[in-house]
Amino acid sequence: MNDVIDLLGKVTPDLLQGTVVTLQIAAVSLTLGMIIGLPVGVGRVYGPGWVQRILGAYVTLFQGTPLLIQLFMAYYGLPDIGITLGRLQAAFLTLGLNSAAYQAEYLRSALQSVSEGQMTAARAIGMSKWQAIWNIILPQAVRLALPAWSNEAVAMLKYTSVVFLIAVPDLMGQAKILSSRYFAPIQIYLIVAVFYIVLVGITYLILTWIERRVRIPGLTGGTESP
Amino acid sequence: MEFVQDLLTTFNFIVQGLWVTISVTAVALTTGVVIGIVLAIARVYGHPSLQVAVTVYSVIIRAVPVIVIIFILFFVISRYVNLSPFWAGALALGFASGAYQTEIFRGALQAVQPGQMIAARAIGMSRLQAIQSVVLPQALRLALPAWGNEATLVLKDSTLVFAVGVPEILRRAQQVSARTFEPFLAFGVALLLYLALTLITTQALRWLERRYRLQM
Amino acid sequence: MTTPILRIEDVHKSYGNLQVLKGISLTVHPQEVVVLVGPSGSGKSTLLRCINLLSPPTKGRIWLENQDITAPGVNQDRVRQRIGMVFQEFNLFTHLTALGNVMIGLTKVRKMRKNEARDLAMFELERVGLADRAHYYPAQLSGGQKQRVAIARALGMDPHVMLFDEPTSALDPELTGEVLAVMQKLASEGMTMIVVSHEMGFARQVADRVVFMEGGVVVEEGPPQRMFEQAVHERTRTFLRTIEYMRQAP
After folding, report:
1. Cα dihedral C236→C239→C244→C249 (10° resolution)
2. Closest chain B residue to A67, measured at CA
3. Please, is B118 exposed, middle or buried when counting C-beta atoms within 10 Å of its C-beta (0-12, 13-18, 19+)?
4. What pTM was computed for the model?
5. Rounded CA gap, B99 and B36, in Å?
């Protein structure tokens, strides 16, 4: 038991450093995923046919292949055709584009589940199609997609764990270095597992709190009077 | 012309990892199914303390990245048992998937109408018989869509065993790119292979769903 | 004879091979209340959606205040600002409060400033008797209240004509009264209204004209008194009698 505590003391500082990197990557990638995912989702539902097809191909590619291979392609493969990315850049880009594909699908499903009458009523008071999408349909769809988006946020924390395979010094990256330094892979990775459990737990709590704050009776919540 | 030659060599080399990828996926899925069904039954019908244990297992495993689980189990298994990386990796992946499948089958079991169990008991079946002959068959069919989703995820996650040295598609792609100095081609082929795999799997699952899906 | 506010000339509407409207011509004068009746499938709702261009006619023309709104190049969104519509299923924006529902057209379409918009929105909500529910979400309102908010939302756009598509059909019987009362009040304030409804009491009391449609054409029209007592066409008499009978049934 004492060795474990001893080990903990030695590795925690480095692991915390790695955690910061992990959080950074998760945050940036998730944000990138939102920025790209929103227009892709809207385009998939409301865009012209050729736009829908191109976006559909993009989604199929990123959802149909492993994240790790996408990452290797971004970091090792692209330089071959003239695009050289740094490790972090490759991580951000890959995770961002990957997340965007999934977020776009959640949004697409939410957009399609908003009742048609909403669009009809919006047009009836003189809104253009895009005004209606922006002011009426999207606000509802985004709220409908919130649970799926929350899952994506939590999942993103776990997805970042593969970037150590292109030598990014995130939580797993530090763990790899430490486990060979101290010849104690099982203990170190178990500690890392605990780190992830804590991170996921905190993220989940924050998201639940946000969901409760954004609740709208009838759309996401109950129907009690204010 | 040289490009086509490179493409063929690359493809041939990588495609030999295809069988490994499929095998890893199959082993992992099977392990996961067994764990998933058994634990789901325990979670829904078992003693309260058993329910708690299963819930704890499920929540904890699902909060940890799959690669971490693979690493931990790989090192644990390697220390005590003499297993090849293939088996260590595939079983580890199955163990991780088991947690997700437990949730899937749990949801499905709970979605079967309570009246089914009541009716089964009423004609004299024991609890276990009722579960086995009445509830489980329905639950399995209800679980099909969500399970299909998990199966596709396991297929894609199977590439993670590359990190413990299993010669699956990604490992082969890496090896061939070191030789031909054409990583774009190599990883491109790897991506396309997986694309084909997932598309075929999705079609197969859709066919299965159409045949066996239970609508409530 | 005042100039008509709305002139519908030989309007046809088809969906693929299905012809719903087969040549409707109708004139509506300012401040007139026209009630459209007819069996389901006769094209009444379709006609309303042609008028506000939600589903423009396949053939024929419509003039709103002497402007041909069916002409090519017409800005349909702007036309819809002058025509208000109230739907059977309310279609209130679920993510906005009652006040928000009325305000959004004012801020986004009429480009009013937020304060002005809020004042006008509260005014319209008061007009329909729901000022005290301004901050409720649609899910927290009863059916009759939802429909009244929908009316306020349409009124906020300052429409010249109001279209009502079976406004009380989705309501429980005890809630129809509050909506019909608001509609009657609107009529007495001089609003031009075209109402598709089965509420014969409303038609008798408030309508200036009753138009009977069947099979995509106008069969007969006239003042409610004549239509209900001495309609010319057999079909008209049969239909109106059936509707009245059903309404009175316990």
Report:
1. 160
2. B156
3. exposed
4. 0.87
5. 7
Q: Which two tokens stand for residue B150?
A: 């998990």
Are B43 and B110 a contacting pair, CB within 8 Å? no
Picking from C93, C103, C141, C164 by the largest number of A CB atoms within 10 A of its own CB, the best residue to mutate is: C93
Phi-psi region of C190 (alpha: psi -120 to 50; beta: other; left: phi over 0): left
Task: Give the Cα separation of A140 and A159 in Å (integer).
Answer: 28
Q: What is the pLDDT of residues B162-185, one digit of tens each?
A: 999 999 999 999 999 998 899 999
Per DSSP, the three-state class of C226 is helix
- Annotate A141-162 with b (16+ C-beta within 10 A) or e (fewer): bbbbbbebbbebbbbbbbbbbb
Rounded CA-CA distance C103/C113 in Å is 10
Residue that has been written with the tokens 């291979």 in this structure: A69
List the C6-15 sheet strands across, edge first.
C18-28, C6-15, C59-64, C67-68
Interchain contact A162–B (C-beta under 8 A): yes
CA distance A182 to chain B (A): 15
Say if residues C4 and C56 touch (Cβ distance below 8 Å): no
ipTM of the complex, rounded to two decimals: 0.91
Q: Which residues face C214 on adjacent strands?
A: C217
Nearest one of B134, B115, B133, B142 to B212, comparing CA atoms: B142
Which residues are B191's β-sheet partners? none
Specify the amino acid at residue A136.
I
CB contact under 8 A, A126 and C157: yes
The Cα A153–Cα A134 span in angstroms is 24
Full set of structural domains in chain B with CATH: 2-211 (1.10.3720.10)
Distance CA C10, CA C22 (A): 8
- In whole angstroms, what is the distance from residue B127 CA to residue B98 CA? 24
Quote the radius of gyration of chain C (alpha carbons, Å): 18
Mean pLDDT of C13-27: 94
Q: Is C138 on the interface with A (CB under 8 A)?
A: yes
Question: Among candidates A138, A163, A137, which has minimal Cα distance to A75?
Answer: A163
Residue C35 in 3-state DSSP? Answer: strand
**φ, ψ of residue A219 in degrees (nearest 5):** -100, -50
Task: Report the 3 state secondary structure along B11-55.
Answer: HHHHHHHHHHHHHHHHHHHHHHHHHHHHHHHHHHHCCHHHHHHHH
Q: In angstroms, how far is the first alpha carbon of chain B from the final one?
A: 57
Per-residue pLDDT tens digits for B28-56:
999 999 999 999 999 999 999 999 999 99
Question: In sequence order, which ranges of chain B are alpha helices (DSSP H)?
Answer: 2-45, 48-63, 66-80, 85-111, 114-122, 127-130, 136-142, 144-157, 169-180, 183-212
**Rounded distance, CA C211 to CA C80, Å?**
23
Tokens of C32: 């007139």
